[in-house]
Amino acid sequence: MNIAKVLDAKGLACPMPIVKTKKAINELEVGEILEIHATDKGTKSDLSAWAKSGGHELLKDTEDEGVLKFWIKKG
After folding, report:
1. What is the pLDDT of residues 11-54, one digit of tens each?
2. Which are the contacts of 46, defined by CB distance < 8 A and separation ≥ 6?
3. Do the beta carbons of residue 58 and residue 21 sit within 8 Å?
4. What is the DSSP pairing of strand 33-38 with strand 3-9?
5. Boundaries of each UPF0033 domain copy (predicted)?
6. Distance (Å, whole) CA 7 – CA 17
7. Residue 1's pLDDT band (boundaries 50, 70, 90)?
8. Which residue ranges make up each domain of the chain?
9. Bridge partners for 33 per DSSP
10. Catalytic annotation present for 14
11. How many CA atoms lie within 13 A of 25 on its CB side?
12. Which whole-number Å values give the CA distances from 11 to 14, 25, 57, in the listed order?
């Protein structure tokens, strides 16, 4: 996967991971991939809904040692 940008949102509580994701994805070109690292458990459902409503694609999400990782392709 070719990652255009990595966003570190670890330690941030809702809604900040979404706010920072929105800002970061606006800096990308259509089709580029943003990787997000977060620790707030609510981010999983929030990012999924946000990506869908914004026309973006949540490609994958994983959890490793309490860190949630997401890959979103800009739509």
Report:
1. 999 899 999 999 999 999 999 999 999 999 999 999 999 999 99
2. 14, 15, 17, 18
3. no
4. parallel
5. 7-31
6. 9
7. confident
8. 3-73
9. 3, 73
10. yes
11. 26
12. 10, 20, 24
